[in-house]
Amino acid sequence: MNLLTVNDLKVHFPIRGGFFNRVVDKVYAVDGISFSIEPGESFGLVGESGSGKSTTGRTIIGLEKATAGKIEFEGHPIDTKHEREKLNYDKEVQMIFQDSFSSLNPRKRVESIIAEPLKNFENLTPEQEKIRVLQLMKIVGLAPEMLYKYPHQFSGGQRQRIGIARAVATNPKLIIADEPVSALDLSVQAQVLNFMKQIQREIGVSYLFISHDLGVVRHMCDRIAIMNRGQIVEIGTRNDIYRNAKHIYTQRLLAAIPSTNLEKRASNLEHRKAVEKAYQAHKDDYYDETGKAYPMVEVSPGHLVSLPPKEALKYKQLKEDD
Ligand SMILES: Nc1ncnc2c1ncn2[C@@H]1O[C@H](COP(=O)(O)OP(=O)(O)OP(=O)(O)O)[C@@H](O)[C@H]1O
């Protein structure tokens, strides 16, 4: 059974204006997306700034309200407070934010930051709670003497470890990680990512890993969905996306991954320029006249792509011939 299923989710924000503060327009932040995450899986949601990734994550955790669509956890809807309570949803689904500085209360010590979810969801004595917090600090590689320090006394990477310790405190089944490393230096990014993988191996949690960077997601995710203009335009395994991307927007995101190899950099730049030229010339072909992505076509098992009708026809024909 899927751990999380998102079906035709829409989140539209009204824009108010004018003398009477009426709704004058809408932002179609998330506009009909569907995907599912399996237990223990790392699922990546990738797209440029403004494509609707954070809104998706925030809606799944309950910080935004869906305009339409269905979210199910372990096969059950989570629409009402009662349904969420029955599934223990608020304990089972946790979030790690990009900006550890603003997501950690600056007036609280590390001890009470990490203990917060334990207080909400576990019935522990103060002694048990302290032992658990120390265990969690050990898991994330923070020394016990840091227990009484405040967030500003830590580096960015260490603060993100505190956020991770808080997120794993209740042994959740799903962690939504919204750009967890993009505020960190490159060397620290790799450390935190490896460490998130290690935690996954240890506790078997699933990740919804949100990022603008296909380079970062490559090391983390089993399957990846590419999001643009509030819609998912391609979804597939790591291999499908990195070796066989079919949507022009995915190809552009791939070309943007910087090469670590100095010799390759120059040819990479040429490649990026060529992809960008093709993208600018053809991007509108990939959306209908209202800006909607075309229906997804299965180009190989599990690899779904929104393709222009002419392209899509080729794959449908191939399938019929099989
Ligand atoms: N509360 C809100 N009210 C109105 N518009 C919003 C709100 N939250 C997000 N938006 C808009 O919805 C769109 C999608 O935003 P979202 O933050 O989900 O994108 P994103 O892909 O996560 O980008 P970023 O990485 O920059 O956060 C953007 O145009 C954004 O301005």
From TrEMBL:
Q: Where is the ABC transporter domain?
A: 15-254
Ordered alphabetically, the record's keywords are: ATP-binding, Nucleotide-binding, Peptide transport, Protein transport, Transport
Q: Name one Pfam family in it.
A: ABC_tran
SMART domains found in the cross-reference section: AAA
Under the heading PROSITE patterns, the entry gives: ABC_TRANSPORTER_1, ABC_TRANSPORTER_2
What is an example of a GO molecular function annotated in this UniProt entry? ATP binding
The organism's place on the tree of life at top rank: Bacteria
Query: What's the name of the protein?
Result: ATP-binding cassette domain-containing protein
Give the species.
Fructilactobacillus ixorae
